[in-house]
Amino acid sequence: MKKLIALYRKPDDVEAFLKHYNEVHLPLVARTPGLLRTVINRVTSAPMGGEPAYFMIAEMHFADQDSFDAAMKSPENRAAGKDLMGFARDIVTLLVADVD
């Protein structure tokens, strides 16, 4: 299994961020071909104390490398990526991971 992981630092306007994320961005992401599952993790605390480094972590699951590659090249994913760069460019870090 392959995952695309988005790590979000806390936005300046949490309410506006969540509204756009839930009403615009997630519906775009859901159209990505080959996407098996999306998991949204809201970070609530940092066990070592202090402010958590991240506000939210999103995981997009794909069956394998081939389906991941095809999804990343799709027009649906390009639309989601364009939207992401429009509202979260300065606060998001993207990672790709293998699931063991």
What attributes does this structure have?
alpha+beta, Alpha-Beta Plaits
Give a nutshell description of this structure.
This protein is of the alpha+beta class.
Structure commentary:
By secondary structure, the protein is α+β, with helices and mostly antiparallel strands. It has one domain (2-57, 65-98): Alpha-Beta Plaits (2-Layer Sandwich), CATH 3.30.70.100. 40% of the residues lie in helices and 29% in strands. It is built from three helices and four strands. A four-stranded antiparallel beta sheet has the order 2-3-1-4. The chain is globular and about 40 Å long. The model has no long low-confidence stretch (mean pLDDT 97).
